[in-house]
């Protein structure tokens, strides 16, 4: 296993710790969740850059890297749902797109193809990461603007998610045509 793939797996492990921190009461745990989320998000940038620079891009990485991103981001979103920091309809839209793109990737894999993340998927992930960092920081600060800011940010994420999903559908329409 190469370094970029190890970083991807580390992100999954860090997600479990971050979720535990999110569930514990108190400002110390809130701030630890911010730090853990930010660190895990940075591994996403690092693993991709290292893989491309050192020519360590693998099919495992192409599949697991976006999956690790989903595990990280959607774990946070799900934990924050009961606090009303994530609009449930926005969450459904976001998850719908993810299942749709995952279905396209699985269908492509059956045809011997790998559908790697495109610029729209990467942009969606960066916007989600930044939005979630802002939400987690505001949550740790216990600011009154938390609910309003988090809801606006998550709706921005939902819109970008729809655009990204549409691009994946358009770019990979042939995968669906060739599916058995």
Number of helices: 7
Mean pLDDT: 91
Which superfamily, in CATH terms, is the homologous superfamily?
Answer: CDP-alcohol phosphotransferase transmembrane (TM) domain
Order of helices and strands: HHHHHHH
User: What summary fits the major beta sheet?
Assistant: none
Compact overview of the structure:
This protein has helices at residues 3-23, 27-53, 59-80, 88-110, 119-141, 146-171, 173-177.
Textual characterization of the structure:
The protein has a single domain, classed as Four Helix Bundle (Hemerythrin (Met), subunit A), CATH 1.20.120.1760. With 180 residues, the chain is mainly alpha-helical. The protein is built from 7 helices and no strands.
Write the layout of secondary structure elements.
Blueprint lengths: L2 H21 L3 H27 L5 H22 L7 H23 L8 H23 L4 H26 L1 H5 L3
Labels describing this entry:
180 residues; mainly alpha; Four Helix Bundle (Hemerythrin (Met), subunit A); 7 helices
